[in-house]
Design brief:
Number of strands: 17
Distance between the termini: 48 Å
Shape: elongated
Strand content: 25-35%
Order of helices and strands: EHHEEEEHHHHEEEEEEEEEEEE
Strand order of the largest sheet: 4-3-2-1-5
Structural class: alpha+beta
Amino acid sequence: MRLKNLVGKLAIRTARPDVTVDLYDLMNPLKIGTFCIGSEPWRKANGYDEQYMDTPVKIVSVKEEQVVIENTKDGRRKLLERKYMDDHWTDYEALLHPEEEREQELKDMAKELKAAAEPLRRFLEKYYDPMVKVTVDEEIYRTLDVGKQNQLSRAIKSLDEVQIEEVPSELMKTLYDFTQGWKVAGSAKQINMMLINPLAVITPVSYEFSKLDPPSALSEGKYVYYEESHEDVFVLKNKKKAIRMSAEA
């Protein structure tokens, strides 16, 4: 953790400095006799510099390449030696109580998710069900997905029973020109959000061609399946009121 992020907190080192050999200690003629097994210069030369790894210090301030620390025993302050200005520091209290840090992270994430879902809440409250406001405010995110890399997924995939699908903005327009292929019409407006009841639409798939090729050298001895299909969507006339949308004015 960067020292700048630890200002005002108790911090402790988690590893020895990356550079441990102090040439002054090794070559100073006045201390040449002290360079023996177990001496301080010998420990530094062999990577045993464990300063600030046993007792935490308070990070008082950080200014460019200067760091002020405070001894927790006598309250004395001094400049931190440059060789210890690295990322091998961590929050001492968070190290002792990781569950509190984790809980705070989840609370902060819940706030972010609630803010991200606010436009959806307003849309659902206006067009779907006024009671959805209670659901969003009280239980905006019931499960947190932790992936294989121990990372939390903040993407909102569903809101209670409403599944959320992301659609490219160019496919969410109010008008298209199909004269040749398709393109967005000049007077088209952007659709911000749509709420669709699955029972109000039919999504047929028509397969025009399909073939299964036998194993070959090109397929590394595996079967290869080809198909060509056409997908479409139809709105049931008597259920069109089950579809709502929010578009720019």
